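Shipment paperwork, digital attachment
Item: protein structure file
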Amino acid sequence: MKKILMVCLGNTCRSPLAGGVLKKILGEKNIEAIVESAGFEPYNIGEGPDERALIVAKKYDIDLDEHKMRLFRKEDFKNFDFIYVMDQRNLRDVLFLAESEEDKKKVDYLMNVLNPGKNQIIPDPYYGDLEDYEYAVTLMQQACERLAESLR
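Attachment content:
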C-alpha cells in the first residue's frame, strides 16, 4: 500500500485539503493508500484546519474532522513513498531536510502529477477569501484524480 504525504507551510489549509481530496477520490475508486499531511510553521501544532478550509471542505464533501496540524519530520522520508508540496517554499524546506538522493526523488509539486515538469504551484489561500480556497481545491481535485489513477 502506497503512503502519500501532502506538505504546505502551516498544515492548516492546502495540505489537509489536498489530503482530504485525495482520500475522497481514492475511496470513490476503491484504491487503498495511506494519506497524511504536514507543514513547517509550528504555530498551530495540534490544532485543526483553518475555519475557511472547513467551510470549503464541507461544500465539497471533504472530511477534515480528524486533522490536527503536525510538523514535517526527517522520518517522513522513510515513512512515505511520495511527498507532494504546494509551492517553491515547501519544496525548498522539504529538500533541505533530505539526507539522500533517494529522499529527494520522493518529493515533487502536487501539480506536476497533472502537468509534469511545469512546477505549477497551488497558491496559498490563507490571506484570501473563500474563492481562493475553492480555486485551490479545484486544482487539487484535478491533480488528485490523476494521482489516484497512477496508484491503481
